[in-house]
Amino acid sequence: MPTTRNPHVPTRLNHHASKRLARFRPWHLAMAIALCTAACQPVDQPVPEEGAQDALPDQEAWNTTIYLSRDGRQEATIRAGHRLYFSETNVTVIDEGIHVEFFEDDGSLASTLEAEWGEIDGLTHNLRVRGGVTVHSTERGTLETDSLTWLNAANLIVTDAAVRLTGDTDVIAGDGFEADPGMRRYIIRRNVKGRFLPDAQPQ
What we know:
Elements: H1 9-39, E1 59-70, E2 73-86, E3 91-103, E4 109-115, E5 117-121, E6 127-137, E7 141-151, E8 156-166, E9 170-179, E10 186-196
Antiparallel strand pairs: 1-2, 2-3, 3-4, 3-5, 4-6, 5-6, 6-7, 7-8, 8-9, 9-10
């Protein structure tokens, strides 16, 4: 026999289902309030571990000049907008306004250097700089790189980073650099590329 559907059954089922939903709605509301309350509680911030803070400097100064010499001869003058000295590591950190002048053996100016950040090793007097480093030499032009170290004992500027050297007539780029501060003699170690500047006249 064919079955017949009772048109009243869905109505009764829907009626009972709506009653069940009506009974559970307050419970759902209570749960939502509880979850919101828990989620809105302030989260405890983790306590920093002991020794996690940066070491405090032993000295701090603004707008100062540092003179570096070797064998009694002045080799560099460093002007620092802000510097910090840490006696435990014997390191001076310059975090603002670095301007360096390098000198030849006869006392004449060899080149100038500017950077965003610097660090002087108090034992070796080596200077390490980084961030927008530029070295300008009247003999060779302008060197641009991200980081550079001046080795006091050897009186050399060195880096393993990418460099760009712009002179009067040409531009030379590569990776790794070594030169005297005046950049009269220099070495670019890897990936050397160069081009002549347009309309430049050889000296």
